[in-house]
Every structure is written in structure tokens, then in C-alpha cells.
Queue: 2 jobs
Job 1
Amino acid sequence: MKVRYSYLQQQFANPEPIFEGIRELLKSGAFTLGPQVAEFEGKFAQLIGTKYAIGVASGTDALKLPLKALGVGHGDEVITAANTFIATVGAINEIGATARFVDATPNYVMDATQIERAITKKTKAIMPVHFTGEPVEMEQVLYVSKKYSLPIVEDACQSILCKYKGQTCGTFGSAGGFSLHPLKNLNVWADGGVIVTNDAEMDRKLRLLRNHGLKNRDEIEVLGYNSRLDTIQAIVGNWLIPQTRAITSKRQENAAYYDAAFMKMDGLVRLPPKRANCERVYHLYIFEVDEKHRNPLLQFLLNSGIEAKVHYPIPLYQQEGLRHLGYKAGDFPETDRHSRHIITLPVDQHLSREEQDYCIGKVQEYFTKAK
Ligand SMILES: *Cc1c(COP(=O)(O)O)cnc(C)c1O
């Protein structure tokens, strides 16, 4: 049996409604910022429950533009998670600022109790990352944000519809950034991103920044970027967005199915602690094993046709491309521990129970043989 990681062929197996939308677009020629972009923004704002949503070119830009709008730039520092995808750091870097990391909790997300220690005179913003689709402890982030007057821009790229104490991720701070990348829970056919905010002035600035700073055809208010959400991608998004809640529920059901099976495995397989009042949306399903078993089990799963992965085997702060940040081995022990213990299994909405049973069976088989 093969258990693929990418489910995109299944997701877009019946693309006729999308093709129809693209045919309509051809008639109008509104290839940049067509009415379909505004339609998507309206639907997205409604989905998340914010006043505004602004479509941009990528999830990276969905983080970069709010920082820029807040005036963060050269010489400034932004506090974020040591355990994240490189795009978080890339967004901070692109505006000339420097990422300062804090370590993770056993739930793989930024440990909000460590933020205060990372604050310096140069700190200008906090960027919590709801990694894997699990919320950061936002009460603590809000406390620090208020105490030091530091704005929050949430990296919600992996966490569409994720909730912390009943409140949707992306709505806690000045703005929240989401990715529409093909591998994210709400995915289009290329790069895309969207920013949510409840602040009218932030919305206005973001609309300027994503379109060269153009106030109208002839007047430039600020220096901006070319970072518009492509109209074709908005058409794909408009087709998919009504399915977002169903996609989320299916991922949660799949995760619960894995959880129930793995909890029976005598502690050989360990799961991150369950937190009350948090609704996880399972962009990634991660479990842990002893360090000595991780690579052999991963290899066994791969040899069995299961596209298991590790998010991530090398922590960002130990990457060559981030050496200039000045961190040294051991600075983020929990992030390091994850890199040695974790395995990611497919958990997407198109995964079948047979495929899940096969994955579970192969993990069991590995441990039976290892004994
Ligand atoms: C996907 C992702 C981003 C943004 O990535 P893009 O490829 O630019 O859409 C940012 N942060 C995290 C944590 C991500 O997973």
C-alpha cells in the first residue's frame, strides 16, 4: 500500500467549477485585483470573523506586510518561535528586521512564558506561530504585549480555524497572516496569502502596501510591494472556502483516530499533551518516539510506502543560512528535542481509514520487530 503525503490530485479531481470561473475571468480580463479577489476577501473575513481580510501574494507576505505597516524595519527585532517554518523568519528578514527566538513547549508551539526574557531595547513586535495548527498560549502573549506595548502579528499560516479559549487564531493582535500555499489546509494552485485585521487603518495600509503603495492610479502614498493575491487563485479559493469547516473536522477526526490507536501502544508512541480550551486543526499530525527509534521507524515507514516526514530534523537556529543570528547549539533544548523524537504522518481530509490503519499497523509492526 502507498500512503501519499500530498492529496492535491484528490482535492482538485473535479475542477470544472474552477475552470468555469477562469473562463469567466478571461472574458473580463481582470487578472489583477479582479472582483473575485474582493469576493474571496469577504468570504475569508466572514470565516475568521474579522472586519477585514486582505489577499496577498504569499503567506510570507501575509506576515511581512503587517510588520511593515506597524513601522517595523531595519535594526528592529521581532520575537518569534524557534520552532517554525523558515518563512516566518524570512518575512522578518525581508523588512530588514532580525528574528529573536524563544523555545517551544511540549506542544511544539512558542513558549509564551519565555517571551519576556527575549525582549531588548530593539524589540518592536511579537510574532507567535500557531505551529501545526495548535494555538500559542495567547493569554500570556497578550499580557506581555500590553506590559511592553509591543504589537502582535500572528503567524496563523498553519492554523486556519484554530481556536484558543474560543477565539479564532489570527484575531488576537494587530493582524494575522494565513498562507494559501498548496500544502496548507485551505490551498490554492500556487502561492497565495491573506491577512486579517479588525483595524480600519491597518486594512488601509495593507491595501496600499500590497499594490506598490498606490492610493489611486496616479498617486503613491508610501513605498510598497507587488504582493497581490492572483485573481485565478482567488477563484480557486472561492470554490474551496465553503469546505473549510468540513476539511477541519475531517482532519480532527483523523487525528483522534490516530490518537486512540497510539495511546494503546504502551508508551512506545507518545503524543503531545492535550490542552483544555484549545481547538487544534491539525495542519500536521506529529507523534514522538524514543530517540533511538526515530530514524529506524521513519525509514521503516518510508520503506513501507508511507510518506512520513519530520517537521523539522534541523532546527532553524542551527541552519547555516541563519548563522548570523548568533545562536549556538543547545540554545533551544525543547526545539532540539523535537527534532530528534518526532515523526509526522499524513492527516489530511482525503486520507482513508484504510490508509490510517495501514500507518498504525506499520508503527506497531516496527515495535514488534524491534523488541
Ligand atoms: C507556510 C508557512 C508560512 C508562509 O509560507 P508561504 O509559502 O509564503 O505561503 C509561514 N509560516 C509558517 C509557519 C508556515 O507554515
Job 2
Amino acid sequence: MTHSAAILWVFVLFLFLSKPISSESDLSPEELSEIPRNFLSFARKAEIFDWMVGVRRKIHENPELGYEEFETSKLIRQELDQMGIPYKYPLAVTGVLGFIGSGEPPFVAIRADMDALLLQEMVEWDHKSKNDGKMHACGHDAHVAMLLGAAKILQENRHLLKGTVVLFFQPAEEGYGGAKKMIEDGALEKVEAIFGIHVDTLLPLGEVSSRSGPILAGSGFFEAVISGKGGHAAIPQQSIDPILAASNVIVSLQQLVSREADPLDSQVLTVAKFHGGGAFNVIPDSVTIGGTFRAFSNESFLQLKQRIKEVIIGQAAVQRCNASVSFESKDKIFFPPTVNDKDLHKLFQRVAGDMLSISGVKEMQPLMGSEDFSFYQEKIPGYFFLLGMKDETAEKPAHAHSPYFRINEDGLPFGAALHASMVVRYLFDSHKAGSTYSGYRAHDEL
Ligand SMILES: *[C@@H]1O[C@H](CO)[C@@H](O)[C@H](O)[C@H]1NC(C)=O
Ligand SMILES: *[C@@H]1O[C@H](CO)[C@@H](O)[C@H](O)[C@H]1NC(C)=O
């Protein structure tokens, strides 16, 4: 043994002896890796499972749209009261923030969205939506039930928390960007990392999927009014035809992604709305078109936005029409891309691997859909993943936002236990690393 090696050994021995023996802050790696499975068994107990299912069905029967989730929010607060969990209310109109743990930093958040969709439910079952034209067709009812399930697990195991867990019950994810309003109302104060789950009815039960980096696109909307001069359809020389101009605008818009974007940088531009004219023999005064555009980075997104405006105005002018273009409105705001933190991805792989075995974690292909969780990720490291809730009895499982959407409730314990395990592990690792650790706080690549 060399001299320096001997010194090292003495130092290691010193470290070993100076450690308090078997305090809770020193769970062995084996004990730590058992937590996710223990939490899952707990969440699967009949009483806990039935309670989560009950909460989910109650919310499913009474779907409420963005910023109108008054009953849902009330139900959440009643459940938190029952568990003895303190909370802050209201934020962002109906939002609730619950707190579990020491009340001291670090603060780490888990989030559920509460709103439903403007859609008539077509699934015939005992707990079908009782509100005509509204439906939980995106699983937010399950998101709330799983977050309450996680709250129960964490409250029972609060001795394991090396800091504070903040429960985010957020309104208005569907298009209104409730997350943005939560942030404006101070929800992220002190919070250093955040996790979110989305149910996936196409992914088998007990599987999860996600990836490091961008997973969902940023999304924006545009609307343009193209004005010409109406007149008799048989005397075109006396009119300025906005239908023809709008048609050329649409064709030109289709060349932005195909000719101006990097083929390896996925983008979408769709014109989904075309309103103009009403008669067979009248050229209308104006046409309104509108659509959505998607991209995975701010740069691509802003480039696309600028070119949409230039092309609409320029192309309309070719046919002597004027055009005005608008982008954001109160109920249609821009969502940034959803970008997962790479260190949190490692944490997720460890926790999900411990709970579900490695084969349960699938590498997700990025999707062009969007999610307002991205607003949190613009401020702090965040991690979003999909949880399998496929209904194996269905011949052809319906996608989210389908009136036939239906989840497999057996997936609820997985979501509750994953939420809870992620934050326990996050706080534990943070605590162990002390203030010198920058891993989970590395934010540069966002
Ligand atoms: C377009 O705008 C100009 C300037 O305001 C106006 O003179 C012209 O008449 C407009 N053309 C149409 C087709 O509306
Ligand atoms: C993207 O743009 C938004 C709004 O301008 C900004 O807040 C955010 O920090 C930007 N994100 C990145 C990764 O540059």
C-alpha cells in the first residue's frame, strides 16, 4: 500500500465512522430501490385503489371546462382536508397547491391538470358524463386521482421526505395555458423541479414512455382575413376575388415547411379553417382562414410565425387583396415546446426501472402535440412522461380527445406510486448531494 493510499483508507474509515448509524437519512441503495415497489403495493391495496377509482369516476361524471373547475377543485380540497394536508387556494381561479413534508427546501412539485373538453361522451357506462357536451376525454380525471393517490402515499410516508413536496392541481390545460397563470400567481416560488404524467390509452398497462430532450412540440395558432371586393360571379373583372387569393395563400403556406425548414427539424403547418362565401354566384368580400403551426424550438417556431405573416400578406397582394394576420388570443395562446431535463430523465429511468423492471420503460418518439406543462419547464427543470392505461378489452382503443376515449383504471396505482417515488427519490438524492450538487439543477440545455 502506498503512503497516499493509506491516507485515503484512513479518510474513508473516518467517513464511515462519522456517519450516524442507520438513521432514516441513510437508506441503503437496496432500501431506496424498494421504495417504488412498496409504494405500488400500497396504492394497489383495495381500500386505496377503490378510493382513487371513486374520485376519478366522480370527476368523470362532472367534467368542467378550463377555469370552471369549481366542483373538481372543491373535491380535491375536501380530500386534502381529510388527509390533513395543508394547501393554498385559489391560484389561477380554481388551482390548488398542497404541501407535504418538512416545509423546508428543497421544494419539488408534482402536477395534475383538472379540466375537461368540449365534447359529447359516446361511451355508455355507469359513470358517463352528466354534463352534456363536456367530457374528460384526455384523462385529466385520472391525473387528479393519481395525484391525490400520490398525496396519500407521501403523507403516510412523510418521514422519508428530505424537503417539501408541492402538489399542483392546475386548471385549464386544454388551450388556455393554465400553467402560465399558475406561474403568474406564484406557484413555482421556491420550487426547483417538477414532474408531470399523462395517461396513454395506446400504451399497455404497466408501461411508461418518455425521453430526454424535446418530447412535444411548441404550438401556435394563426387567423387571417383576406379582403377583396365582392361582386357577381359572372362578372369577375369588376370584383377582387378573395377565394382565389386565399387558395393561393394556402398553397404558398404549404411551401414553408417543405422548402424553408431543415428537414431534420420537424415542423407542421396546417390550415384547418376556411370560411368564405355562401352562394354559387356571388364573389364574397372576404375570406377567413386559420390554422396551427408546430415546432420543437423557439427559433424554428418564431421563424415560422414570421414567415406565415409575410406569406399571407405577400401572396394575397399578388391577387390585389389585403390581408390581416393575428396570432394569439385569450383562448388560444402559444405553448412552448415540452423539453425534458436530462438528469431528471436518469432519475425517472431509475425509479421506473425499480418499479416496473427495465422493459417497462419505453423510449418515446417525440410527438407534434403540445402540453402546457412546458411553461413550467421554461422556468425550472421538469419531466413529463406517458403512463400506459390501455383498455385490453377494447377492440380498438380510442385516442385522447375521442368521444370514445376510455382509460383502464388499473393504471391508477402506477401513476400514484410513480409520482410519489419520483419526488422521494429526488429529495433523497438532493439531500445526499448537499449544496455542492448541481445535477438536478443543471438547466443550461433547456
Ligand atoms: C387595401 O388597402 C388599401 C389601403 O388601405 C386600400 O386602398 C385598398 O382599397 C384595399 N384593397 C382591398 C381589396 O380591400
Ligand atoms: C422561448 O421563448 C419564450 C418566450 O419568448 C421564453 O420565455 C423562453 O425562455 C424561450 N425558451 C428558450 C429555450 O429559449
